[in-house]
Specification:
Layout: H1 10-14, E1 18-19, H2 31-36, E2 40-43, E3 47-48, H3 55-69, E4 73-74, H4 77-86, H5 92-96, H6 100-107, E5 111-125, E6 128-141, E7 147-158, H7 164-180, H8 184-196
Parallel strand pairs: 2-4, 2-5, 3-5
Antiparallel strand pairs: 1-7, 5-6, 6-7
Helix pairs in contact: 3-8
């Protein structure tokens, strides 16, 4: 089944946000990824190490698009979430504990993407107000349990400037704006795109990519 593709609007968002992407540790290669070549990916609701209760499902809602555009079939995250909850697994930590052979035999996924959220939301660094997203992800083969790939989602938006007084004013304005507008969804889009499309350490183009596509995924 060919994944549905959606247009990206990264240019608009990147005009107001700073994104830093990094993924796998130096020296990690793609041998296992290329050898196993998964066609379908199950994305489980992320583990949440923050106090933001909306973080897991905001992140989950923004990871499907880049994976699908990268050429993989991604199981509908809302359907999978509802199915697991109906079968006695109401929380992400319980979902992450499901045996891989069960996932492969019941759901049919070739690989599972596990995500752990470490930072999500507003924080202060000195007198600078920042909205920050940091999460780690790993792709695991359901047949062998071997890790095929790992990456990092990282994006931030905040006040800045050289003048301390201006920075204080900017931080105060940012705090007021953040209370009215939730920037984390937009940041999550950028963080996931940055992770999947990283030219050095992103995903390999999947089996449903356009003919002639090879190497890393491209937005």
């Amino acid at each position: 089944m060919k994944p549905v593709k959606y247009p990206l609007n990264v240019a608009l968002l990147s005009a107001v946000m700073a994104v830093a992407g990094c993924a796998t540790p130096p020296g990690t290669d793609y041998v296992a990824f290329r050898n196993h070549r998964p066609r379908s990916i199950l994305v489980l609701p992320p583990l949440n190490k923050t106090t933001n209760v909306n973080a897991p499902y905001t992140d989950l809602s923004t990871i499907t698009q880049p994976l699908a555009e990268c050429g993989y079939y991604v199981f509908p995250v809302a359907v999978v979430d509802a199915y697991l909850k109906e079968n006695g697994l109401p929380y992400p930590d319980e979902m992450h504990g499901v045996a891989l052979d069960k996932i492969r035999s019941i759901i049919g996924a070739d690989a599972v993407l596990y995500i752990m959220i470490e930072e999500w939301g507003q924080k202060y660094i000195a007198i600078q107000s920042m909205t920050v997203i940091t999460a780690h992800a790993k792709l695991v083969d359901t047949a062998t349990g071997q890790m095929l790939w790992q990456g990092k989602q990282e994006a931030s938006q905040g006040s800045g400037g050289a003048d301390p007084i201006a920075m204080l004013v900017s931080a105060a304005v940012q705090q007021i704006m953040s209370s009215m507008v939730d920037y984390t969804h937009q940041l999550s889009v950028l963080a996931n795109n940055s992770m999947i499309y990283d030219s050095n350490k992103g995903f390999i183009a999947g089996p449903y990519s356009p003919p002639g596509t090879a190497g890393r995924c491209k937005p």
